[in-house]
Amino acid sequence: MAGVADFADTAAIVRQLDLVIGVDTAVIHLAGALGVPVWVLSRFSGCWRWLLDRNDSPWYPTLRLFRQQRPGDWAPVVARVREELLRAVRFPRHDRGPA
After folding, report:
1. Is 73 helix (H, G, I), strand (E, B) or coil?
2. pLDDT per position as a tens digit, 7-49
3. Taking the domains of the chain in order of start, what are their residue ranges?
4. Are 75 and 69 in contact (CB under 8 A)?
5. Nearest to 84 by CA among 40, 49, 35, 42
6. What predicted TM-score, i.e. pTM, was given to this entire model?
7. How far apart are alpha carbons 27 and 11 in whole angstroms?
């Protein structure tokens, strides 16, 4: 990361990734804006941007939400992300079902 001078450098790195996984951060929004597949682990109270009762985003078509069902309970969220990540890497891209 020593060579990263600004957000344009960050964008160049993100464009090279197959998937970005994280919480609601600037890099998540950058990935979504760039059209890079992005999975967001969202807290129970969530941000207004993620609306209600959705696992996708009207703002970023490549974004997928993994929401907490109970405040502070991250274990099921991480387990779902793990399952989906394992599923994604087991099958070549052209053999995957809908996200």
Report:
1. coil
2. 999 999 999 999 999 998 999 999 999 999 999 999 887 777 7
3. 13-91
4. no
5. 40
6. 0.83
7. 8
